[in-house]
């Protein structure tokens, strides 16, 4: 009998080993898109892909983790538990649903305990048309010098100015300006990039191999860091103005939230990953969510991201100092709560959401 601790990890090699072992135990093959760089411990990095169900299946469910690197430790636990659950896999087979597991969309960030890719790109802001003028975010541009100061901890004057902006704008407006995506500061927060990242291109390869023949496509992208602690919030990963998509998603996940109507814990963002579906899988009727697992308060997460970015912007700082290790631990702790109750809630709600997707694909 496996316990919740058997599904979770604190290092990328441990998580990858558990994922590959779970796929092998389920008698599933694995294909790996190998990253050009090595991990923190010199290990190979990869987007690992395994599929339960035939390639010609008309109904496909994608369950992905690690879009935001360090958030992959939560998502991978859900994936490994599902792979270790023969009842879930059998339920999907009976429903005629193939399940595609994508482990560590951003393996570099997962290994190095960073939210971004090795290019400092937020993968979920990277799916824009780079042949067009880049989106502008003047709200972020004005805040950048305060968000990523020259020294850490920030001077008192810096923090006072940020608090004044919070009081002036309010939390929702400040969150939108900071996290909506920006394309002007490559060494800043929530940077969407100036070109497609390695992770974007690897994901496209996988979709071309696995998601161009299905008639119906569901996608659950597993995240952590926003919302009440231990609560999984299903956020529409699609255009909230698409009435048919919205109706399906609300039927499958009744607690559905959306950035379109400002009901979700997330800000509206540019360059979202779901944009790739219309480009690579235009034949499929698509229904998808980001499943966001709450951890710590939003300002706590933001402070951890600011410290992480400061450390990254100062490569001369040794990574083994108490300050650097404290920053890395702080970032990990902002996206993963290492207590049994949180992990148990994550597994339960992750399974419920995937079962709902299987039943939704079966019914529609």
From TrEMBL:
SUPFAM superfamilies: Zn-dependent exopeptidases (SSF53187). Pfam families: DUF2817 (PF10994). This is DUF2817 domain-containing protein.
